């Protein structure tokens, strides 16, 4: 049995990407067939631009209720738009955030102790 994922499908030309946020079978190719388009993401726009990413949050929530699994990037988009992630996915995201914070803070502490000596 294959899993349904909410993920990015790349479009655009060379060096000018834009992405569709799609619900697709996990075994389908990245840019191949999909079940439903639930938004888009244009990384070339400024970070504060309101059309940088658009998400149909109601449709995403429906797919999450049915058991679709978002990729890490899409999960961040859902959180940014104020959507609710399932508990299992939320715990995974919190663990990753804690690991990143630990990696960032560890070199600073080591450098501080090395200069103090």
From TrEMBL:
Family annotation (Pfam families): Ribosomal_S16 (PF00886)
Stored InterPro entries: Ribosomal_bS16 (IPR000307), Ribosomal_bS16_dom_sf (IPR023803)
Residues of the signal peptide: none
Protein name per Swiss-Prot or TrEMBL: Small ribosomal subunit protein bS16
Entry GO CC: cytoplasm; small ribosomal subunit
Protein family: Belongs to the bacterial ribosomal protein bS16 family.
Organism: Candidatus Phycorickettsia trachydisci
Single GO MF descriptor: structural constituent of ribosome
GO terms (BP aspect): translation
Assigned keywords, A-Z: Ribonucleoprotein, Ribosomal protein
Gene name in the database record: rpsP
């Amino acid at each position: 049995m294959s899993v349904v994922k909410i993920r990015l499908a790349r479009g655009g030309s060379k060096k000018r990407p834009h992405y569709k946020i799609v619900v697709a079978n996990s075994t389908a190719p990245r840019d191949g067939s999909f079940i439903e388009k639930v938004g888009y993401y244009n990384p070339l726009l400024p970070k504060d631009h309101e059309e940088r990413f658009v998400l149909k949050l109601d449709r995403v929530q429906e797919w999450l209720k049915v058991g679709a699994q978002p990729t890490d990037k899409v999960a961040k988009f859902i959180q940014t738009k104020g959507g609710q992630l399932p508990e299992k996915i939320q715990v995974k995201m919190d663990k990753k955030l804690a690991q990143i914070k630990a990696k960032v803070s560890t070199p600073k502490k080591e450098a501080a102790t090395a200069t103090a000596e």
